[in-house]
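Support reply, case 0932

Customer input (verbatim):
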Amino acid sequence: MHEVATGSTVRSFEGHTGHVLGVAWQANGRRLATAGADNVLKIWDSTSGEQQRTIGGLGREVTGVRFIGEGDEIAATSGDATVRVFNVASGGEVRRLQGAGDFVQSVAVAGTTLAAGSQDGRMLIWDVANPQPLHTLEPSPAP
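Our regenerated output:
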């Protein structure tokens, strides 16, 4: 972490064994979540820099991570074609969102609506409380 005004290093978050593919701040600024090519999520105390938890069990690279609202849930996307919701306090999987059929590249969250884009060009949209997608946007046909 760097001080914006000076660019000086304030704190380092070290622990992934592969490169970091995604970063998300909790709304209150107390936690930082990182997604790694080492197939894990890491949760950090942003004040001390201490690692609080490692969340594993994803079959491939964790490509994206976003906190959901102001609570303790995060959404994570992975190369194993999954979109999952985890509780950062317990480390447990809360739910797996259905419908992704290919390497999932990215995730965005607005309120309780989650969108994820996959390698096959599709974008899926869910309400995070429901594992079935609300909408699936297909890629445009090739010219």
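We compared this against your earlier run and they match. Two observations from our side: The first strand starts at residue 20 and ends at 25. The chain is about 0% helix and 45% strand. Please reopen the case if you see a mismatch on your end.
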